[in-house]
Structures are given as structure tokens and as C-alpha cells.
Amino acid sequence: MAQPIDAQMAAALCAAADISADNKLALSELDVKRFAPMASHGDWSVLAEQLTDEQISQLIRIFTLGEMQFASWAAGDKSPVIALVQQLKQRDVYIKVTINLDGTGTSHFATGVPFFEHMLTQIARHGLIDMHIEANGDLEIDAHHTVEDVGIVLGQAFAQALSDKSGIYRYGHAYVPLDEALSRVVVDLSGRPGLFYNVDYTRARIGDFDVDLLREFFQGFVNHAMVSLHLDNLKGLNAHHQAETLFKAFGRALRMAVTPDPRMSGIVPSTKGQCVRLRQGRMDDATVFSKDPVAMAAHWREQGARRLHIVDLDGAFAGEPRNRTLIEQMVAVMGGVPVQVGGGIRSLDVIEAYVAAGVSGVIVGTKAIQEPDFLAAAAKAFPNKIWFGLDARDGLVATEGWDQTSTLKAVDLARQAAQWPVAGVVYTDIERDGMMSGLNIEATHALALASNLPVVASGGVTTLADLEALKQAFAGHETLLFGAITGRAIYEGTLDVAAGQALLDG
């Protein structure tokens, strides 16, 4: 501590650390005054006997505030790039982490694992991240717990420092050579954990360090920082060089990803359980219409909506449902009004769970496009409940939350789907989606005629005139037009739900 803890500073530190007196687990000002000197000397085993895990975490948070320029924090200067501390108490490993993502690369490590500390130094130096890590654990058998848990706590620190990730580049990548070795690292601060580790070390140990522990470090980091991370060692004969290039590239990729992007100021690259509308499927062009989707669903039911269309956008990008509990609550509040759900649905188990929760129609897209047999199996298992989601740019289908555009024609895939008992096709023109520019009626009509399947038109519905034009296009083929999806228009007031339904009914 830069200065002794007195009662006044203890109170200010509690306030700066957002520790409420109403929290029965929280440390009191007297506790802070009493225990901070023990924390400063690293007497964690003694503290562990007197405090709960939560209280230890709070004490470390307070103590680190003093190390990280307490005066500015107490004055309210809470930079989102600084993580005060993360404390993990498990398996007899005690860890303290302090990071500043907007640093100069200074570092201090005390883990008892020299080679690991050498690797951590590469992250700090090449990522320009100020990093202070102390770990006091059982190293008698091996360093497994220490290395893994440092990864976990460092990941937690990154998650805290980045907060909602607004205003940053989010993506980062780097190639780093060292003599004969070359490694590539790509990171996406996505909020969706995923580690893709492709490293074939030429030796099992570097000195007395087990190289398998490096994967455990990265896995712990990924799971708790909630990032997608690809690490590839492309070349290498020396295991030390292989590892060092990975950690250097990791640092440089992080440096790129956390850099502020002036064009993204204030934009959060995720939906996080909110009602949002994207433009052309881009997460960086999202409008939040409500932070309470359940209340919003109830609102549309009260407005007379006869169907509700929901897309789990986080799930679409992650490849698995991310808001299932929330969606089930929305289904319940609709009181029997049919609900159609899509986004990240790539297994029969997920479909079954949604149907059991009362969902009337399940949209499958990416998995069905990549594996037609999956669409066939889903349609046969849940006849007339499966909607084939086809989202296209210039007639070519996009997948992975519209991140990837294929060479497959939407019309051809719709024809193929017609052989199975699907409910129909949800067709979206991505270029028009959320743009308030009107439907691509020609493409929608052509797909319906080619497949002879009912179609739900999506992407660009703005006014009653758009629905009138859609209705006219399907004159003589009315059974092929199941309906139209609208989002931004009803939120922004250019289209009335009841009026739109009445027009298509007439």
C-alpha cells in the first residue's frame, strides 16, 4: 500500500470499490482497516481462515485499488480498461491479478513457475498490457493448478476490464516469427467462449515445464474472458520457440482487439438479452429497442399480433442458443399466440426443448444448409414445425449469423427442402434487412414458385405499401404466402401491426 489504511481511507476505498454496507458479506470499514495490512504482506492463508471467499475477493479488490492509483479512483475516474483484481481461492491456489489494457507493457510475476512467467511476460510486453500476477499454490507435484487457475483469473480480469466491450475493434490477429518458428493467433472478443488450439510441440517438456499446461492456460482464459481464440503454430522445430511465438502473437492480437475504434464509440458488439434490430445482419449496426424482451412480447400481444417471430442473435453467431430461458418466458407471456424461434438451433435436442416449451415453429438455417440430412431428420421428427431459414445476398445463401456467404443458391436449397415435411421457408434478403427499403418481392415470389412451399417474406418491410405489393405479387398463389416479418418498422412506427394483418387478410 502506498500509505497506511485509516478509517477514512477504508470508507473511501469501500465506496470506490462499490461495496455496499447493505451487503451482509461485504467488509466493513473496520474490517478493511484490520485486514488490509495482512493483504499487503500476502498472508492469504491466514485471511482464508477468517473470511469467506466473497469477502476475500472484496478485500483484494479494495487493496488493489490502493495500488492502482487510489486517489483517481476514489474521485470517480473508473477507466474501463483497468481490472482492479481477481481473486480465486480453490485447490489451495491463491491468485491476485491486476491489469491495465491501456498500459506500456510493464509486468511483475510471482507464480513459482519460471518458464510460465517468461510466457506471461510476452503477453504483457507485446500486448502493451500492464500486468501484475501473484500466485501462491501447491507446486510440489506439478504446476497444473497454478497455470490453469492463472488463466481463469486472468480471463476474469479481462472480462471485468472490458466491461460491455463497447467502442473497441473487437477482432485482433497477429503472425509472429522466431528463427524457424512461426505462429498465428486470431481473437474475437465476442462474448462466446471457444478455443481452437492447433500446436504440435516437438518436445513434451521445455526444461521441467509440461507443454500440455499451456493449453490449459488458454482454455481457462477463454472460458472466463468469454472470447473466441484461434492459436496455430504454423512452423517450428524448437518447442521453446513454438511456445514463445504463440504468446507473443497472443499479446499482439489482444493489443489490436482492445484498441479503441473511433467509429465504434459507444457501440456494444452483442445483444445481451435485449430487443435489438440489426442493419443487414451486422452486430456493429444494432439498434436497441427494448431491454425487456418479455415485456415487449406482452406489448405486441396486446397490440393484437397473431404471431411472434424471435431470433436469438447471440445464439446465431455462437452456434448454440444463448437466450433460451428468456425465450421460454416470452413464449409463456404470449398466452398461446404462436411463436416462431430461430438462432443457433443445430441439434434435435434443442428443437425438442423449444417445442416442449410451447414454440410453434422452429427455424433451422446454418446446420440445415451445411448438412441437408439434419433438415430431413428434423422435419420428420417434428413435421410441419420446422421452418427452413434461407438468408441470402444476391440469391446466395449466408450462414453463421450471416457472417459467411456461400456459393449455394437459395432457390436450389428451397427446392431440395420441399421433399420433406417442412412447414415452409423463411426467406430474408440480407441487403434489405433492417434498411427500411422495401422487400425483395421478385426473389421471394420466385423462390415460393420454384419450391411450392409456403414462404414468410423478410427483410425491408417498412409500410403498408410494401405489404400491398407483396400481396399483389402472390395473387393467384395465395397459399404460398404465409406472412411477412417486420421489426424495425413496427418499433419506429412506420407500420401498424393490426393494419398490416388486416391488409394481408383481405
Short description:
This protein has 506 residues and is α/β, with parallel strands linked by helices. The chain is 41% helix and 24% strand.
Describe it for me?
The chain has 2 domains: 191 residues, Imidazole glycerol phosphate dehydratase, domain 1 (Ribosomal Protein S5, domain 2, 2-Layer Sandwich), CATH 3.30.230; 231 residues, TIM Barrel, CATH 3.20.20.70. The longest helix is centred in the N-terminal third of the chain and has 19 residues. The chain has 20 helices and 21 strands. By secondary structure, it is an alpha/beta fold. Helices cover 41% and strands 24% of the residues. Strands 13, 14, 15, 16, 17, 18, 19, 20 and 21 form a 9-stranded mixed β-sheet that branches. Pathway: Amino-acid biosynthesis; L-histidine biosynthesis; L-histidine from 5-phospho-alpha-D-ribose 1-diphosphate: step 6/9; Amino-acid biosynthesis; L-histidine biosynthesis; L-histidine from 5-phospho-alpha-D-ribose 1-diphosphate: step 4/9. Its EC number is 4.2.1.19. It is found in: Cytoplasm. InterPro entries: Aldolase_TIM, His_biosynth, HisA/PriA, HisA_bact_arch, IGPD_sf, ImidazoleglycerolP_deHydtase, ImidazoleglycerP_deHydtase_CS, Ribosomal_Su5_D2-typ_SF.
Task: Give me some keywords for this one.
elongated; four-stranded mixed beta sheet; 21 strands; disordered N terminus; 506 residues; 24% strand; single chain; Ribosomal Protein S5, domain 2; 2 domains; TIM Barrel; alpha/beta; 20 helices
